[in-house]
Write a structure and sequence with these properties.
With 111 residues, the protein is mainly β. It is built from no helices and ten strands.
Length: 111
């Protein structure tokens, strides 16, 4: 069973036990979060569905949520932004490191 969830403006595929890297959260490591914006739920034969039962929301599936636990926080590798204009003596170098949080999907509730 898996669910497609919308979290902080991005879409992720959430399965039980999956580890996702999402944008930085204001939550302590070890705290639990609940994601209510579930776009799609798919059940296989092991979960009581036919070969592949898919429920699509409009825009969200009612009564379904995904519980997750915040594992850790971190920073991605540096990305270099370099702007250059030939023959104009224009060069700009800038860098950026995106902050992220690692969450572990616990259970898909209500599916």
């Amino acid at each position: 069973m898996y669910a497609l969830v919308e979290f902080k403006g991005k879409q992720y595929k959430a399965e039980k036990g999956a580890v996702l890297k999402v944008d930085k959260l204001d939550a302590e490591p070890g705290s639990s979060i609940n994601i209510d914006s579930v776009l799609l739920v798919s059940k296989g034969p092991a979960e009581g569905g036919s070969p592949d039962t898919v429920t699509v929301g409009a825009p969200y599936v009612k009564g379904v949520s995904v519980s997750a636990t915040v594992e850790s926080h971190g920073k991605d590798g540096k990305i270099i932004i370099f702007k250059y204009m030939p023959k104009k003596d224009y060069r700009r170098k800038n860098g950026h490191r995106q902050q992220y949080s690692v969450i572990k999907i616990g259970d898909i509730v209500g599916a």
